Structures are given as C-alpha cells and as structure tokens.
Amino acid sequence: MFDVIAFDADDTLWHNESIFTMTQVKFREMLSSHGPEVVDQTLSSTQIKNLRHFGYGIKGFILSMIETSIELTDGDISGSEIQQVLDFGREMLVAPIELLPHVREVVEELSQSYSLWLITKGDLIDQETKIARSGLADNFSNVEIVSNKTAGTYAKILTQHKVDPLRFMMIGNSMRSDIVPVVQIGGHAVHIPYTTTWEHEQDHPHVDSDHYSDLDHIGLLPKLIREKG
C-alpha cells in the first residue's frame, strides 16, 4: 500500500526536546532575579518572533536566549553571561544522540521492505550531524532537511520524487509539522506523541482523527503498517 514511509527525526527517532528543556532550566537560573515565568514567557515569545529569521533549531534558540537576556536586563547583561549562553548552546550541539525505545529495530525491520525517508526541519549542519551520529543513516534512501513543514513542503517533495500522496506515510510526534500537513495533501500519517512538546508545535488546525493514527510508541508501527497494507 505504501511506496514510501517517512520519519520525522527529533523526538520521533531520538530525544531532542528534553535537551532544550534542560537548557531552559539553566537559563532560568542564570536570570533567576526575573522569575521563572517571566523568563519562560519572554523566551517563548522571542523564539516565535524569530522563527522567520533564524528558523528552527539550536542556533536560533541560542540567539533567542541572548536577545531575551538583553531585553530582561535592559541591556545590562554582562559579557560573561552572554558567554554562558553560548556555552549552553555548545553543550546542546554536542549532546549524545539517544534513540527512543524500539527505534533501531523498527527502522531496520521496515527498511527491508520499504523505501524509508527522513524528513526533518532545523539547522542543516546540526541535523546532518545528528543523523550521522544516530547510526541510522544507512536505513534511509532519502533525507530531506527543510526550514519548515507545511502542506506545500510535503507536496513539493513528493512531486519531485514522483510519489503519490495516497501511497505515502509520515510518522512523527508533532501534529503541526508531521500530521496535519500530510493529511491535508491526502497522505497517511501516524502520530506518536513525545513526553513533552514545545507549545508552538501544539498550535495547529483541526483534522479529523479518522485521517491519521495514534500510537503509544514506535514499537507498534510495523503491526499498524501490516494492518493497513
């Protein structure tokens, strides 16, 4: 039934949001005199404002932390504190890649019968590095690193590779990025929630649950695909 099965990367195949969460805790501590809620709210609004300039990923997050620091301190942030933020970012960029449970065996199993793609958004160099370090790269016949995931993005990729949306399945943790736009172009989608999701990714148009599947974890995916096939 499917010519291509595609996976999101961050928080679908390996942990990612937890690294941002841990860094945000350190950032709150650095600006503790302003209160955690104020720091979180200011950082969140700054990130969303900056998405169209810096895109998704760690580098944009670092720049938004620096901007938030400047805003909350009225420009009185010290050079050593900015260096501290940069160090937070470097730690994020070299953090070990920790695969989610069942990922390796599921990806390796499905790669024996299907053409697997990886479709992820974020910074090009960071995502390429994570894919290489994951140990999964050889299982994917195509890797697409995009600035954003919209219905137009998916339609363009499928058109370029002459893949019918009806024979395409996307697996991911984000309704906004991995599920809704694929359903909108007539493809199949499987939502596998991560333990935490960035608030921005939770804001999405409604789609009927009949048009996608929900799974508790990726280990259940091969059975679902067999049933649909």
TrEMBL record:
Q: Which InterPro entries match?
A: HAD-like_sf, HAD_sf, PGP-like_dom2, S-2-haloacid_dehalogenase
Task: Check the record and name the Pfam families matching this protein.
Answer: Hydrolase
- Alphabetical keyword list: Hydrolase
State the Gene Ontology terms under molecular function: hydrolase activity
Q: Mind telling me what this protein is named?
A: Haloacid dehalogenase-like hydrolase
Organism lineage: unclassified sequences, metagenomes, ecological metagenomes
